[in-house]
Design brief:
The structure is a single chain. This protein is of the alpha/beta class and about 375 residues long. It has one domain: Luciferase-like domain (TIM Barrel, Alpha-Beta Barrel). It contains 13 helices and 11 strands. The strands form 2 sheets. It has an 8-stranded parallel β-barrel with strand order 1-2-3-4-7-8-9-11, surrounded by 8 helices. The chain has a two-stranded antiparallel sheet with strand order 5-6. Helix 2 links the parallel strand 1 and strand 2. Helix 6 runs parallel beside helix 7 and helix 12 packs across helix 13. About 45% of the residues are buried. Bound molecules: flavin mononucleotide.
Length: about 375
């Protein structure tokens, strides 16, 4: 598939990185990142130079992936969490242009873009990044958001059938020389054509959690991007094994598994918790959080009041990601647990990405290296240039 000699093309670090536990940055393109809060330092996502500085810092610290969130409208409440966001293909192209080694991922809601168009955009980003493109495939679950694009939203499993056709067309466009016809239930391509080809086969990701979603991911993708059902080590390992076994046993494929986390590091566990408490309890946007939970169909009514309250707290803290909250040493212990459980990568988000990235690179990265989870990254830079 390569059009340049292999030597000239970068490897995608999501595949080639030597690190046992890979790292990404999640949701930097959208208001709030993953934190559902009105805290004054919340990420606003309307300032490219500020975002670009954080992107460059992640690249220079050896992070493997920059993964944006696919978002088209906010979730209401006073914050209208997620309402302001940069579009993800053009975002990834911008990331590609200003970085050297990090994977430039786009997150694509399949019903919002024709697969031939998406294939061409993906190829373009792959060329701008010299082979570092990745695609996070999202089917769409937030009704008002999907109805903006045509007044309706498909039923759950139909969305995956549609995504199945969509990704097959993209793959055809990425590999087929010359013209091709392609007719499926949803598409009818006559004499389709797409040149040039990507430099590397694009790295595919999906966050399917339902049985149908997991099958889709196991069949087509290189990595699953999961929400952990429990943080108990045995349960984490079982959840990862189930996904990897499905890919191996049903489709003969080696699937990687990544999760996402929100981060708060301090001198003591109590201070790290206080930091989260402040933006969740004092400034959290309960209405936006309730809207998401309702739309996702999460039945907090079936939990005890205490469980439901914990769940909402955790959701406002970082979209119910794995909480990396504590001292630097505690965070490394959590990361060791995740790695031992079979996790291949963790995508991070912070209330304040700039400050959070600086602390991470200065304090956590060296400890991850000492713990054997990562190798020293030669040109690591500690600061986030303004
Ligand atoms: C790690 C992760 C990342 C996600 N990123 C997005 C996103 O960027 N945009 C979006 O609309 N939904 C996103 N989702 C939500 C999923 O698309 C949604 O939960 C979907 O319904 C999961 O598939 P399932 O129905 O098979 O469980 C994400 C979910 C997870 C777990």
């Amino acid at each position: 598939m390569t059009t340049k000699s292999e030597k000239q093309v970068s490897a995608n670090p999501m595949v080639s990185s030597p690190n046992k536990l890979k790292l990404g940055v999640f949701a930097l393109n959208a208001h709030g990142g993953t934190a559902i809060t009105m805290a004054p330092e919340v990420h606003l996502a309307d300032d490219w130079p500020r975002s670009a500085a954080i992107v460059r810092a992640a690249d220079q610290a050896g992070f493997e992936a920059m993964i944006p969130i696919g978002r088209w409208r906010g979730f209401g409440g006073e914050s209208n969490f997620g309402g302001t966001s940069f579009e993800t293909y053009t975002w990834a192209a911008g990331v590609a242009a200003i970085t050297d080694q990090i994977a430039c991922v786009t997150t694509s809601h399949v019903p919002t873009v024709h697969p031939l168009m998406a294939a061409k955009q993906a190829t373009t980003i792959d060329h701008i990044s010299n082979g570092r493109f990745g695609l996070n495939i999202i089917c769409g679950w937030f009704g008002p958001e999907m109805r903006m694009f045509g007044g309706k939203m498909m039923d759950h499993d139909d969305r995956y059938d549609y995504a199945d056709e969509w990704i097959r067309i993209m793959q055809k466009a990425w590999t087929h020389k010359g013209y091709f016809d392609y007719k499926t239930d949803h598409f009818n391509l006559e004499q389709a054509f797409s040149e040039p080809k990507p430099l590397n086969r694009p790295f595919l990701i999906n966050a399917g959690g339902s049985p149908r979603g997991m099958r889709f991911c196991a069949q087509h993708c290189d990595s699953a991007f999961i929400i952990l059902g429990s943080h108990e080590p045995g349960a984490v390992a079982a959840q990862i094994k189930k996904y990897k076994d499905l890919a191996r046993n049903e489709f003969g494929r080696d699937l990687k598994v990544w999760c996402y986390s929100y981060v708060s590091v301090a001198e003591t566990l109590s201070d790290a918790r206080k930091y989260v408490d402040r933006y969740v309890t004092e400034f959290g946007d309960d209405e936006a959080c309730a809207n998401i939970i309702k739309e996702l169909g999460i039945q907090t009514g079936v939990m005890t009041l205490e469980q439901a309250e914990n769940f909402r707290y955790h959701f406002k803290g970082g979209w119910a990601g794995f909480p990396l909250v504590g001292t630097a040493e505690m965070i490394v212990e959590h990361m060791e647990m995740l790695s031992d459980a079979g996790m291949d990568g963790v995508c991070l988000s912070w209330l304040d990405y700039k400050a959070g990235m600086e602390v991470w690179n200065a304090e956590i990265m060296p400890l991850l290296e000492t713990a054997g989870l990562r190798v020293p990254y030669a040109s690591r830079s500690l600061s986030v240039a303004a």
